[in-house]
Design brief:
Order of helices and strands: EHEHEEEH
Low-confidence stretches: none
Number of domains: 1
Number of strands: 5
Largest sheet: 5 strands, antiparallel
Number of helices: 3
Shape: globular
CATH topology: Rossmann fold
Helix content: 10-25%
Length: about 130
Amino acid sequence: CLLPEQYEIEGLGGTMRLGGKDVEIAPDTLASRMFNGAASARLRFRHRYEVNPEYIDRLMAAGMVFSGKAPGQPIMQILELPDHPYFVATQSHPEFTSRPLRPSPFYLGLVAAALGRSAVGPVEAEPSRR
């Protein structure tokens, strides 16, 4: 399935979604909470895959939430299952924008969900010994 603007593109790489792109984030979703209520975020992409727009309504009717999409286009970029502790998927590459002291919200969300389900609970870091 090609997007309308992709029909005229010829040659390899024509359907590649590449680089930084803005993503609209739906309110009252896990993605919204992970991005501190922001209405949008700039994410990095490198893929050729899309959700076929003909199936979006059916997937949503079955319980899937598309919590992030390309502005003004039916390009779904973040999905989640709301009844799961952390079922979040993204077309973006959070590893491209994560830094040692500034990890992607996707990684922070995964760690927070894991700690919330841990029998031990959050682990306190020991003070460094010098």
